[in-house]
Structure formats: C-alpha cells, structure tokens
Amino acid sequence: MDIDKEIINKGKIDKGKYTKYNFMNIIKNGDRKDIYILGIETSCDDTCAAVVRNGSEVLSSIVSSQDEIHGKYGGVVPEIASRKHIEVIEMVINEAIQKSGIDFGKINAVSVTNRPGLIGSLLVGVGAAKAVSFSANIPLIAVNHLEAHLYSNILENPDMGGGFIGLIVSGGHTSLYLVDNGWNIKEIGHTVDDAAGEAYDKIARYLGLGYPGGPLIDALSRKGDSSYIDFPKPMIDSGDFNFSFSGLKTALIYRTKKDKTLMSEKNISGLAASFQRSVVEVLTEKTLKAARRFGVKKILVSGGVAANSELRKEFLRKGGERNIEIYIPPLYLCMDNAAMVGCLGHHRYIDGRFNDLKVDVYSRSDI
Hints:
By secondary structure, the protein is of the alpha/beta class. It is built from 13 helices and 10 strands.
C-alpha cells in the first residue's frame, strides 16, 4: 500500500513522511469530502474551543468567560486567568466536540493560538492541543491570534478574496494591515500606547462602571449626546496610520477633575458618548484613509471592539458614502473565540503547514 492510501484509510498522518505534495493530491482527489478542525483559543481570559467544517461552517463554538472573576480587580489578573483555564479547558473541548454533532475520530487537525497573549494562558491551550494531537495522531497547527481575527470575517464570507485593509481593534491591539490578493499580510499601522479596548477599560474603571469597559461605555453612550464634549482625536491627521488613545484617556480624566459634575448621573452618559465618538472617528477615518492611500475597496474590521455599536454603524455609513465594502463579523466572532482559530487552521491544513510538538508560546508577535 502506498503512503497516500495508507493515510486515507487510517485517517492518520505520519509526520515523518507526509509532504505538502502528497497532501494536496489527497484533497484534490476528493478522498476527504469534509475537513474538520478543532480550534482552541486561550490567549487571554476566555477559554474557547470550536469545531469548524471546511473552513467556514461553525459546528460549535464554546466560550467560558472569566469576566465575573476579573471584574472585581478591574482587569485581567494573569495568574488567575491561567489557573482558571486549567480548570475548564477539558470540559470546554469536550463540550465543543459534543455540540458539533460529530465523533472525535473525524477531527482532521487541532489548531491552537500560540501567540501573542499571556504566557500562562497560552501554555494551557497549547498544552491541551499537543495532548490532542499526540493522542489522536492528527496534525498540530499553531496560529497567530491576530491573524485569526482577520480570518473571522471569512467564516461569514468563505469566498472572500484578498486585497483589503484589515483593522484589528481589541483590548490588547489596535493595528492596521494591508492584505494583498494572495493574502500576504503587511502591518501599516499600530497603536503607539494604549489600544482602543484598553482605553475603554481604563475609562470604565475610572468612572466606576465595571469591567469589561467596552460594552458598558457603549451601552451608556446610547443614552447620551456625543457632541456634549469636544474631546481631542489623537493622531487623526498624523500623516501615518498609527494610533494613540492614552492622551484621550488623560483628557477625559483632567476634564472631570476640573468639573466633577461631569461624572454625575445626569451628565455621565454625555461624557461617555463624547469619549466614544472620538475613538470611533479616529478608527474609522484612519482606516478609510489607508484604503484610499493603497487603492483598495474592501475593509475588514475585527477584534473585540468591532462589537461596538457606534463603530459598526459609522464604518457602514462612511463605507457606503465612499463606495468601500465594509465587512464586520457577527458579535460572537468579534470577541475572542476558537472558531476563527479553526478557520485559519483549515487554511494552514490545506497548505500542509503543520507544527511539531516542540512548538512554543510567545507573549508578543507580529503577524
């Protein structure tokens, strides 16, 4: 029996013999009609697992949130996060398999985030993925969390090609990428200090709203007048595609120290709405400027802050005015999730790009 048929019949991969060429022959010959990827995501404080079929169909997506645990501290405590991942990772993976409706034996590969993120948290997810890979004798695929966020839009638009500007905006990252038709990714801008989501969390903590700050400020802003205070819009005319939100945060704090009535029940919604308006205007305008500069007609927005109602509305409005297609994932795919990890893993699987069990984790990493 030759190696291709041995792999097909056993449903296993001999990593020592397996080549991209042989693998592509298997796919093209149609011997596997469906490809099932188990995704695992533990880069921060959410323990996530999902099963994705053929790179676009989410059969299950399980997220165990730690928001309530970290809320009393006003932010994520890394050691607590990693310990909680250890407690629930097996249950989350089992639930993802169970809710997918398929047998575990049908999983073709396990895809896991190994960078960037909290080291302790990443180690739990990668350790679990290595155990699955070794015990089931299936490929291990380690992926970049930021690149997975870009792929979250592919889950809703499986035939989408390249040639776009990608904005990733979350608690830890605010970055712009130029993605060409071959899906080669180049960073063209990043935050020089606080990420947008980090600024939301810090302002929410300062205002006594709670954690996580993004949804709380977004909800409060809907009740207020966004023109109540004219806050600065940092780096909106800087001439590059970098971001800065630390100064905006400081401006709000100084303003409230001078006028404590701004934090009263009557005025706080206008304060929040004005802060949010500045964040949204900077994000939308700089991203649209990048699309114009590089001559592309598509923008993909992703990351936790992409769930913000005002950001979504403004991108769609401005994109329509300027004849630019705007893609934003549904809310459950904006937050950290394993479906996007499974989607990216599918494309790595098709390309035969696997990792061995020595793969490490990294707290910082560009795409």
